[in-house]
Amino acid sequence: MSKKEGLLSALGKVNLANTTNRSILVTIIFLAVAPIIIPRSMAMDILIFGLLALSYGIIQGHIGQVSFGHVALFGAGAYTTGMLLYYVDIPSSAAWIFLLAGVAAGGGLALGMGAIVLRRRGAYFALVNLALLQMIYFIVLQMKGLTGGDDGIWNIPRPTFGAASVTPESLYYLYFVIFLVCLFLIKRMFLDSPNALVLHAIKQDEARAQSLGYNVFGQMLKAYTISGLFAGAAGAMYAIHMQYIGMTYIHWSLNGALIIMAMLGGVSTFIGPLLGAAIFLALKDVVSMYTVHWQLIIGILVVVLILGMREGILGRIKSLRF
Amino acid sequence: MLEIQDLDVFYGGTQVLYEISLSVKKGEIVSILGRNGAGKSTLLKSIVGFVPPTRGSIKLEGKDIVKWPLEKRTKGVGYTPDSKRLFGTLTALENLQVSALGSENTATTLGNVENILNYFTPLKGLLNRRAATLSGGEQQMLALTRSLVRNAGLFLLDEPSAGLAPAIREELARAITELREKDGSSFLIVEQEIKIPLSISDKIYGLLNGKIAFEGTPQEAIEAHVIEDILMISKTL
Q1: What's the 3-state SS for chain A?
Q2: How far is Cα B194 from Cα B53, in angstroms, rounded to an integer?
Q3: I need a labelling partner for B198 at 20 to 30 A (CA). Which of A104, A196, B51, B215 fits?
Q4: What is the DSSP letter of B93?
């Protein structure tokens, strides 16, 4: 290959993180065998909240902002899918279509929220997100007849595979496949595409990116909306898995946990938020067997993390290796 | 190409530019000379859209762009700011890619990279280095390459020769004149350094305390002792 061809082909390619393939492979192998080596309910939570954390990683890692309203998008997916399954009478084998409705709801809400919140940065961005989340929380609470209010909605019927009902194992592996598709889509869009490079540049210097001809607001809104699609997917999956939707899905404390998950693993890395979700959920599960004060342990961990490893666990490992 | 009429610009309550009128025709190289604080960079920022003028018009190819959003103004413009403003955690190559993706014609812009790098040869071996790890001169070369690769009708260069070694400065002058010949591009260059502007410009504007104090050819500028007497720029710079 001549030098010129080499340069031109390099200019045509984007790969912001050529070191993540190994961690992605480890993740896939772990999640494939997770129901065998850890309790299945925990494996399922890691899958769903891992996806939610990855979607949040787009906001903090790629847009560069902290959001206190991200679970609104998760809730949009969960409530849309949950309510459709509960209220709409269609053949149960066709009800999987409601999963897609949840995805669309997450994306749709993100588009609306993004158009408002992306006009501010930093603490203001975080707080406007929180304000919108709280508004949604109270609307859901007030519309008791539809949403179940404080009680939520129980016994949501699950879609089926033809005449056969869905076993916990088959649901896990169906979700595993959905998760893999999401994982590769996120990687493709936020690490390996020209768009990824543009977002990275915007995150560093918005004004400079603008002076190179970029519509910064438009680019950010696109990323925020895509993040909403994946958060909506996680919510929809959770509603089907739990057969329940409730106010805890859109409570600010879940958003707090989400931020901790993402930062625990490391938002600057691709797989970090997922790793953080796994560690957080495992800690919660294990520690809460011994003490009801599991949050104290998480609290100590967060302090240690902020003081000692600002880039998160995976970020720290990477910085040690390279 | 670019026509500015009666431009007033304020920073807060302080007026920085007073009734600036200037024009850059297609294929013309125009330089604005002035001391530190004369308002040169502000003028470019005003054209790009960072500092909106309070009065006056800025016309690009006959269209008034004052109310246009920043990204629309800059699509077909190659702007190098004074503070370089590279994306530090991206590699030099990625910085060039970002510039190309934001330009009007990405493929053409990418195709220009090889050509522009021939002027700034030291950069060729550094393309995979993170921009933040490059030296000041290397960063300046990258910032210039990033702008010059864009197939722009108009280039706005803010102190392009700052931090460059003398040999590279000559290459820069060559790049500017050759791009003008090849593509018919126009250049508006802001400088404290006088050698390049006097040697390649078609027209010189002298800026003093936010006002245009001189307008003429480089020859007229030299004959009228504009540089030292009016603009008070030391020739030893």
Answers
A1: CCHHHHHHHHHHCCCCCCCHHHHHHHHHHHHHHHHHHCCHHHHHHHHHHHHHHHHHHHHHHHHCCCCCCCHHHHHHHHHHHHHHHHHCCCCCCCCCHHHHHHHHHHHHHHHHHHHHHCCCCHHHHHHHHHHHHHHHHHHHHHCHHHHCHHHCECCCCCCCECCECCCHHHHHHHHHHHHHHHHHHHHHHHCCCHHHHHHHHHHHCHHHHHHCCCCHHHHHHHHHHHHHHHHHHHHHHHHHHHCCECHHHHCHHHHHHHHHHHHHHCCCCCCHHHHHHHHHHHHHHHHHHHCCCHHHHHHHHHHHHHHHCCCHHHHHHHHHHC
A2: 27
A3: B51
A4: H
Q: pLDDT tens digits, residue range A101-121?
A: 999 999 999 999 999 999 999
The model's pLDDT over A235-255, given as tens digits with 9 standing for 90+, comes to 999 999 999 999 999 999 999
Question: In chain B, which among 40-99 make CB contacts under 8 A with chain A?
Answer: 48-50, 69-71, 74-75, 79, 81, 85, 87-90, 93-99
> Of the candidates B25, B17, B22, B64, which has an alpha carbon nearest to the alpha carbon of residue B45?
B17
- What is the C-alpha separation between A67 and B89, in angstroms, rounded? 23
Distance, CA of A30 to CA of A25 (rounded, Å): 9
In this structure, CATH architecture of domain A38-321: Orthogonal Bundle (1.10)
Cα(B177)–Cα(B198) distance, integer angstroms: 13
A253 contacts chain B (CB < 8 A)? no
Per-residue confidence band for B12, with pLDDT thresholds at 50, 70 and 90: confident
What ipTM describes this predicted complex? 0.80
Is A204–B102 a contact, with Cβ atoms under 8 angstroms apart? no
Which chain B residue is nearest to residue A199, measuring alpha carbons? B98
Buried b (16+ CB within 10 A) or exposed e, A160-192: eeeeeebeeeebbebbbebbeebbeebbebbbb
Taking each continuous run of H as one helix and of E as one strand, the counts in chain B are 8, 10
Asked whether the whole model's pTM tops 0.80, one would answer: yes
* Domains of chain B and any CATH numbers: 2-230 (3.40.50.300)
CA distance A201 to A208: 8
Distance between B110 CA and the closest CA of chain A, angstroms: 7
Contact B102 A205 (CB under 8 A): no
- pLDDT above 70 covers what percent of chain A? 93
Give the residue extent of every domain in chain A: 38-321
Minimal CA–CA distance to B150: which of B95, B91, B108? B108
Distance of alpha carbon B35 from alpha carbon B38, whole angstroms: 6
Judging contacts by C-beta atoms under 8 Å, the chain A residues touching residue B105 are none
Evaluated on CA atoms B23, B24, B30, B35, the torsion sign reads: positive
- Strands B77-80 and B154-158, how do they pair? parallel
CB A191 within 8 A of CB A17: yes
